[in-house]
Design a protein that fits this description.
5 helices, about 120 residues, single chain
């Protein structure tokens, strides 16, 4: 359940704050989100990654469709990718990695401050 929550909220954070903040500040917000929700390990990694990846790909396709511009197609050719869909896939992979590692960082940061049991031998 926490995985779905982190995925949805990280996508929402990216959609709301990405037009106003640079990507690295949005990454900090995703890390804070993962720390607050207390999602662990792989759930944080994939939740943040899928959320940010889907948001970036969705926004890229939306802007390309609404504007009717040929710029994504030309940029894909210029970068040697061949088409605009390859550019969207590359954008999604990059966003997945950025979101995934920022959420994992937030999860591991929270883990630093968790109390560990002092009595590890059970009874002494």
């Amino acid at each position: 359940m926490k995985f779905i929550l982190v995925t949805f909220l990280s996508a929402l954070l990216v959609i709301v704050f990405n037009p106003f903040l640079p990507y690295w500040e949005v990454m900090i917000l995703i890390a804070i989100l993962a720390a607050l929700v207390d999602v662990r390990g792989a759930g944080a990694f994939f939740g943040g990654g899928i959320g940010m990846g889907l948001a970036w790909v969705g926004q890229s396709i939306y802007v390309s469709t609404i504007s009717g511009s040929h710029l994504p197609e030309k940029m894909g050719e210029l970068m040697g990718l061949g088409s605009e869909m390859a550019l969207f896939v590359l954008t999604g992979i990059l966003a997945f990695l950025l979101g995934a590692f920022s959420a994992l960082s937030g999860s591991l940061f929270r883990k630093l401050f968790k109390r560990r049991p002092d009595n590890i031998y059970g009874g002494w």
